[in-house]
Write a structure and sequence with these properties.
The complex is a heterodimer.
Chain A: E1 7-11, H1 20-31, E2 35-38, H2 45-55, E3 59-64, H3 69-82, E4 89-94, H4 101-107, E5 111-113, H5 119-129
Parallel strand pairs in A: 1-2, 1-3, 3-4, 4-5
Helix pairs in contact in A: 2-3
Chain B: H1 2-21, H2 26-35, H3 38-50, H4 54-66, H5 69-78, E1 86-91, H6 98-111, E2 116-122, E3 131-133, E4 148-154, H7 166-175, E5 180-184, H8 195-198, E6 201-206, H9 213-217, E7 227-230, H10 238-249, E8 267-270, H11 279-292, H12 296-326, H13 335-341, H14 351-359, H15 365-381
Parallel strand pairs in B: 1-5, 1-6, 2-4, 2-5, 6-7, 7-8
Helix pairs in contact in B: 1-2, 2-3, 3-4, 3-5, 4-5, 4-7, 6-11, 12-13, 13-14
The chains are: A alpha/beta, B alpha/beta.
Chain lengths: 134, 389
């Protein structure tokens, strides 16, 4: 069935407590017809990857505003590869300087959405780039 | 049919050659599993899940949730291995603390060394089909415990408090060796009682001050409770609410009327899930219910569960037959019309005409439904003749 909803994990790695953006995105993607698993604050890379694996999500969306993205995001991508989850799309959002984006893409983050991104832009990107469903 | 199978097989073998060329990493194994025939893929996933591969288990659950052809093959293989797990349903109104209580139960069960799986259902949007599945937020303490597996599911329009795949998902967890499966429903109102057929023991979670004795004697959710929990026990009124529930439910008759299931006498407990207070006692009550239900009551509960499962498949199969009759574009609203439209029988009125007749009160809806059913059964058995009046 190809018409079933895409499943997205929204997670907040690291220690910042600013989850408004993650919650707004979770709700916005719900309204775009996605099934959104929200895991809450202060997630370690291991917790996020385990949740993504158990939920068999198509997309992992990472919201991070602490400045620790260059440590945490590559770690998450590496763990996902270790567990054979190469087909899962990883996208990030939050406060991430443009200068860091090339290195993050190199590490496996497919897209970085900064302030001002609309929900529709995110939704369109995920629909266009998430793995093919069987 | 044979032609399409042949070409599918040809594609499969071509793809298999391609993946042979790929390096032998874990990812390549995964893609090999994705390219074989449905039966081969189901077998590979089942074998892997049975030896503890969590990614394979997750993929099986996705197939089950999406009710793909692979899911049926896998479930048929796994069903004989299931039947050993303790299935515990947790239901109650939104915000009563179901997820927090499930998390606390996971903690107790893990202290006892028992592997735990959770199926947590949240509602789907009736408008967009989207969902926010937020039950994991409360269960993060066990996020990396290898013997805990939590799976969120959207209800996807299913109305009974579960998703249509919940029981099948529980059976998969059961088959791969989870000792306990906790089934958390959507936040329920008064009448979503489906979980009682899916679980060995049903816990109804209430919050303090949610109602008085009149609420307690209303039909519905409380009737199916094997254990009642008043959660948020640190709030004022928790013990009073528990007392009221106990007073109204303790008066139930002890003996079953002929032909009816024995009345339940649920224990009423107070917990504070956020601190874990009362949760060990709750597990005790669940186990007491389980051992008391081992006899004839347990047998009838298992028969009810079997009946619910067979009915669910039967309804699915019926839908599929209807869809097959009418072609690819199916919608519930279009079903009777399209169904009546197939194989036009000169003796039968055209579909639109039949519905127009109902709309005009010329024939009644019962006669119309019988006509549709006759047409379906006729088509299914190949006799093809449908009576309309």
């Amino acid at each position: 069935m190809t018409d079933r909803p895409l499943k997205v994990l929204i997670a907040k790695p690291g220690l910042d407590g600013h989850d408004r953006g993650a919650k707004v995105l979770a709700r916005g993607l719900r309204d775009e017809g996605f099934e959104v698993v929200y895991t809450g604050l202060r997630q370690t890379p291991e917790m996020i990857v385990t949740a993504a694996l158990q939920e068999d999500v198509d997309v992992v969306g990472l919201s991070i505003l602490s400045g620790a993205h260059m440590t945490l995001l590559p770690r998450i991508c590496a763990l996902m590869r270790e567990r054979g989850m190469d087909d899962v799309l990883v996208a990030a959002g939050g406060i991430i300087p443009d200068d860091d984006v090339p290195a993050l893409k190199e590490a496996g983050v497919a897209a970085v959405f900064g302030p001002g991104t609309t929900i529709a832009q995110v939704a369109d990107f995920l629909r266009a780039n998430a793995r093919a469903r069987d | 049919m044979a032609g399409s199978q042949g070409s599918k097989a040809a594609e499969g073998s071509k793809a298999a050659e391609g993946s042979k060329a790929a390096e032998g990493s874990k990812a390549a194994e995964g893609s090999k599993a994705a390219e074989g025939s449905v039966v081969e893929r189901a077998d590979l996933l089942c074998e892997a899940a049975l030896v503890g591969d969590r990614r394979a288990l997750a993929r099986l659950l996705t197939a089950v949730e999406n009710r793909t052809p692979l899911a049926e093959v896998a479930l048929r293989r796994l069903y004989p291995r299931a039947g050993h797990a303790q299935l515990i349903g947790v239901t109650g109104p939104p915000g009563a603390g179901k997820s927090t209580l499930v998390a606390a139960l996971i903690g107790e069960l893990r202290r006892a060394g028992r592997p735990v799986a959770v199926v947590a259902v949240d509602p789907s949007s009736p408008i967009t089909g989207g969902a926010v599945l937020g039950d994991r937020v409360r269960m993060q303490a066990y996020a990396t415990d290898a013997d805990v597996f939590i799976r969120s599911m959207a209800a996807r329009g299913h109305a009974g408090g579960l998703s249509s795949a919940t029981s099948a998902a529980a059976a998969v967890f059961d088959a791969v060796g989870f000792d306990v499966v906790l089934i958390e429903t959507v936040g329920t109102g008064q009448s979503e009682v489906e979980v009682a057929a899916a679980a060995d023991t049903t816990i109804v979670v209430e919050a303090p001050e949610m109602g008085d004795e009149i609420q307690a004697i209303k039909a519905g959710l409380l009737e199916v409770a094997d254990v009642i929990v008043v959660n948020k026990g640190d709030r004022p009124g928790a013990h009073r609410t528990a007392g009221q529930l106990h007073a109204m439910l303790a008066d139930a008759p002890r003996e079953a009327r002929p032909g009816r299931p024995a009345p339940k006498h649920p224990e009423v407990l107070v917990t504070t899930a956020a601190t874990g207070e009362g949760v060990a006692e709750l597990l005790g009550a669940i186990d007491r219910h389980r051992s008391s239900a081992r006899g004839s009551d347990g047998e009838s509960a298992r028969l009810r569960r079997a009946e619910a499962q067979v009915w669910a498949v039967l309804v699915d199969r019926l839908h599929a037959r209807v869809r097959a009759l009418e072609g690819a574009e199916a919608s519930v609203a279009a079903t009777p019309r399209a169904l009546l439209g197939v194989q036009p029988d000169p003796a039968a009125p055209a579909a639109g005409e039949l519905l127009r007749s109902v709309a005009a009160h010329e024939i009644d809806p019962y006669a119309a439904a019988d006509a549709i059913l006759d047409r379906l059964v006729g088509a299914a058995s190949g006799s093809g003749s449908a009576r309309v009046r």
